[in-house]
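Protein modeling request. Please complete all fields; requests missing the sequence field cannot be processed.
Requester role: graduate student
Desired output: 3D structure, token encoding
Chains: 1
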Amino acid sequence: MTFIEDIFGRLEKSGDAPVLREARDGRLESITSAEFLGLINQARASLAARDLKPGDRCALIAPNSIRWAALDLAIMAEGLITVPLYARQAPAELASMMRDSSPSLIVSDPALIPEIRKAWDAAPEIISLEAAFPRDAAAIPALFRHADHDPVTIIYTSGTSGEAKGVVLNAGNVDHMLWCTNARLDQLVGPTTHPDSIFHYLPFCFAGSWILLLTALTRSSVLTMSTDLTKLADELKLAAPNYFLNVPTLLERVRTKVEASISTRGFANAIFSRAKSEYLRRQAGRTRRSGSFCLWLAKKLLFPAIRKNIGGRNLRALICGSAPLAVETQLFFVMLGIPVLQVYGLTETTAICTMDDPRHFIPGRVGPAIPGIEMRVDDGTGEVLVRGPNIFPGYWQRPEATAKALADGWFHTGDQGEADSSGNWRISGRLKNLIILNSGHNIAPEPIEDAIAARLPEAQHVMLVGNQRSFLAAIVTGATNSAANGLKPDRIQSVLDEINTRAPHYKQIRAFHFVAEPFTMESGLLTANGKLKRDVIAARFSSEIETLYQKRSA
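Delivered output (554 residues):
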């Protein structure tokens, strides 16, 4: 039985049980399993009426919604291939990916349709998401029977450098991944008579986000979707989830907001600061009697209130992926009594290679390899290599790129990392991001950038430069509210001085350039999932970077 058959079978059995919810205007709009199955069948009838053939592509461009999920399942149930795209991406980028995947049908948010037609005058039929669900649905044929090798989706990589590539994932990839995610969530939630409550705000067009949606549907969970990121805190309280998927950026912001709020509260701040210091001392194997009392008091009075404010009364854990999470931030949440479980993977690995075990996890590491796959480090380059049933069959219409990525029967992740004696992995950075000074020193920028960002919460982004130069420099951006929080050059320099005192000479940052506005996706400096487009940023600020090095050389 494939995951699609499993989901349809569960929906048929669950009947009136709620399965998906949308948080809208301070209330939850729910749909039952039977109603959701009805929506899927409406979309299937619409697709069947268009004489599409198994293997045809259908592009789906819209924000998360119940209808998005229903159409995605309908597309796969008909043997078609979903091409999910990010609705906030620039129309020219969307058009480029659609030209590459050559869809037979485009289903879009209505507001985007004129922009898509303008960017791609040869586009095929485009309909609105609403139009994909006709009320007069015809008879529904049997589910398409997928073999393991049959493709079900093409998800485009975020394209941190170069053009985005379409990652083909097949039914076998997804079947194996959902078996792994369900097993791990069983460990987290434990035996229960109630369905899991999940909150979700990340776009379904990203691989990890999509896998969570499918996992929820195979578990008969209730998944609540955010519809307004500006109201995330309120929606979280409304949903009262057991867990939800995060990116490091959000957790960093939550931590900064909590600490800023407490810093204005006198006695509470004194207790919190001492409790935090004692907690970190204990992590390092040391303790202090006065700090022990403050930590006990904070656990009784402060931490429960903070936990409730962050995620509500039912929160068991936060799940974090897509980029490395600063150890300091992970320890901060663990101190509050909220485990942060890390996941590591790429789109090409069906989103996941490793997952933290909720019964035993190590801050700073991303857990052991999921069952059924192998991971090792290349002896020559230090690159993490992976093979197993989660590895994609190839890039869409890119045989040379596929052969390179899957050389010698292993997927080459492009990441550097290492596993400890118990098999828990640490990912240290991207190979292509390595900075090679003209002294010959190789430096992974990510750990240093994370250390600066942890000590400089007023900044939104930190990026190191220095390839083939004599020393490292940094580009630091303000946040949207940097004027209000007083980020000034002296403040940046003091943090760099602190970092430099603990670093060898070749890892010291000897100059920086401050950019008042943060990098954004709209400016072309961030990928669709918020990662730095390092080459683009370096090119955009090439004259400023050159000035930094000229001043130091003068």
